Amino acid sequence: MWACKMSEDQTYKRACQIIELALTKKAQELVLMNLKGLSAITDYFIICHGDSDLHVKAIADAVLNGMKREKIYVWHIEGYEYLNWVLLDYIDIVVHIFQKKTREFYNLERLWGDAEIKEFH
């Protein structure tokens, strides 16, 4: 599953680090979307959900603290105060951590349907 770390692409390797961190807190239905060539916004979306606001917070905190230990700092955070949809912007990678119903409503996977998607469990 973590063969993605064999890539020469440093951004992809960083995305793998974030995925590992999110999975330590049992992030649900985690996907990596490759947006290269589809968007100038970012290279990758990481999308997952938690079962409650506390679960969403735990996933977000694991990513933030784990990346900070690697001296990689988030550029922008949104939604942390409400915990329905937390967005962590690392510029080349944007992490979306939803509560399940919010994720279903916005359905980013469908919105960015042309992107290559990899699932992680």
Explain what the structure shows.
The longest helix is centred in the middle third of the chain and has 17 residues. A hairpin with a 6-residue loop joins β3 and β4. The chain is built from four helices and six strands. The protein has a six-stranded mixed β-sheet with strand order 3-4-5-2-1-6.
End-to-end Cα distance: 9 Å
Instruction: Describe the strand arrangement of the main beta sheet, using strand numbers.
Output: 3-4-5-2-1-6
The CATH architecture can be named as 2-Layer Sandwich
For CATH, the homologous superfamily is named as: Beta Polymerase, domain 2
Secondary-structure content class: alpha+beta
Order of helices and strands: HEEHEEEHHE
Helix content: 25-40%
What is the fold named in CATH at topology level?
Answer: Beta Polymerase, domain 2
Number of helices: 4
> What low-confidence regions span 5 or more consecutive residues with pLDDT below 50?
none
What percent of residues are in strands?
A: 25-35%
Please tally the β strands and state the result: 6
User: What is the CATH level 1 assignment?
Assistant: Alpha Beta
How do the helices and strands line up, and which of them pair or pack?
Blueprint: H1 10-24, E1 28-34, E2 44-50, H2 53-69, E3 76-78, E4 85-89, E5 93-99, H3 100-106, H4 108-111, E6 116-120
Parallel strand pairs: 2-5
Antiparallel strand pairs: 1-2, 1-6, 3-4, 4-5
Helix pairs in contact: 1-2
